[in-house]
Amino acid sequence: MASAENRHAFARSSSTLDVYTDGSSLTANEESEKLLSPEEYGRRRPRPYHRRLEVLWASNAFFMVVAFILAIKLYTTDCRDPSLQVYSPANGAVSYIAEHKFTPALGKLTEYMGYPDDETDRKWQELYQYNRSVITKEEAKHLSTPTMALPGTEDYLVELEVYHQLHCLNVLRKLLYPERYHLLERVSWKNGTINRESYGFKHWDHCVETLRQTLVCHADVAPLSWHVNVPFNRGIYPRLASTHTCRNFSQINKWAEEHQAPEFTQKVKNRTELQQIIDGTDIDHSTEEDLQDMYELFPGDQWFKHWREHPYDGEVKQPQIYPTWNHTWDD
């Protein structure tokens, strides 16, 4: 009986062994690995497997970093204000009011409208009271157009364009009220006609052109809806209470207040003193306009090529002003 059982057991063992000796049989190492615990099996993994795992982890980490960098770049590119591409030391002060509704200001007046009094003038003046700002030398290096420092200081002068525009608008506003400001009288001949070649008139003309360039440059695309405009009942007209996305003027004004320039003398008529101021800087103080054909208005001034090539034979009453410290002309 025992002998028969042994024969059956041997037969089963032989049958099992036959399975592992054909083409799909396990190797001795594989058979021993099947008997290992998961922990022991992990420790016995061959080195090539670990190397492949390390490469996969490194690759994943690399692509995650690249994806993160690209995401940040795309985010900052999408959110960057394209109108701030030109450097300004005040760019960091720019924030936005998502929706701001304009006042129609047609039937009812705002505090900036109507026949002016001292309070009206004060409110307008306050809009650009911080028009002179100072920045550091390092900030000045980034300006697209060089500026000068206040004489004897390291404080460099700038003016935010919005204040220049508001100044121009205020000047034009005053022209609407000649009884109060008498601006036209200052540019009129004795017979009452207006001298349109006077500096004052040219200043107003400049202001109109400045505001035109500003409006076209910023090209507000806020849509104006249309209606009959009851109770005015004069036809079909656009609604004037339009909604806009606006820059926060208060924040820009705060920056200008914090960078307000100290008091200094702006109008200097003494030409010797003016030349000394120029000589203390390293920039060219020439105008950006091409005025060479206007030499007759400046007799004998050698800034004009005409007078350098055709010396003026009349009396030059004022000392020559040179636009740079080295006192030479390009030609």
TrEMBL record:
Compositionally biased residues, Basic and acidic residues: 31-43
One GO-annotated biological process of the protein: mycotoxin biosynthetic process
This protein's record includes keyword Membrane: yes
Pathway: Mycotoxin biosynthesis
Sorted UniProt keywords: Membrane, Transmembrane, Transmembrane helix
Family annotation (InterPro entries): UstYa-like
Ranges of Polar residues composition bias in the record: 20-29
Disordered: annotated segments: 20-43
Pfam families, per database record: UstYa
Parts forming coiled coils: none
The organism's place on the tree of life at top rank: Eukaryota
Transmembrane segments: 53-75
Keyword Repressor: no
PANTHER family to which the protein is assigned, alphabetical: CYCLOCHLOROTINE BIOSYNTHESIS PROTEIN O, YALI0B05434P
Entry similarity comment: Belongs to the ustYa family.
Protein name: Tat pathway signal sequence
Organism annotation: Zymoseptoria tritici ST99CH_1A5
Organism phylogeny: Eukaryota, Fungi, Dikarya, Ascomycota, Pezizomycotina
